[in-house]
Design brief:
Elements: E1 8-10, H1 23-26, E2 32-33, E3 37-41, E4 49-52, H2 54-59, E5 67-69, E6 73-77, E7 82-87, E8 99-105
Parallel strand pairs: 1-3, 2-8
Antiparallel strand pairs: 3-6, 4-5, 4-7, 7-8
């Protein structure tokens, strides 16, 4: 069976997933499609990636979460159309802006 994958996007480009990267500004002008892969690069044990719902994203609520990634180089396949939300689950990083909201098109 043939498997087709979409584009690979490095979240934050060379800055990676960090407190200092403007992740939401990073999405400007980009189109994300089902099958694309987002790669979150960051220093392991310093950050994490939590996929959350919209309320948790807005209010930086860490529990419950949908998925948790903490390897320092995490690949997330965009598998559903619609909004996806990600936050850093370490300390007050989310409250300080380390979060990402994307819209996935078919």
């Amino acid at each position: 069976m043939l498997q087709v994958r979409g584009a690979t996007h490095i979240v934050g480009d060379r800055d990676g997933w960090s407190l200092f990267a403007d992740s939401n500004n990073w999405t400007q002008g980009k189109e994300f499609l089902v099958g694309d892969v987002h790669v979150f690069n960051y220093e392991e044990h310093v950050h994490s990636v939590m996929q959350v719902n919209s309320t948790a994203y807005e209010d930086c609520i860490k529990d419950p979460y949908i998925s948790l990634f903490a390897s320092g180089s995490d690949s997330v396949v965009l598998s559903e159309v619609g909004r996806s939300w990600y936050i850093c689950g370490v300390g007050d990083h989310c409250e300080n802006g380390q979060k990402l909201s994307i819209n996935v098109a078919p």
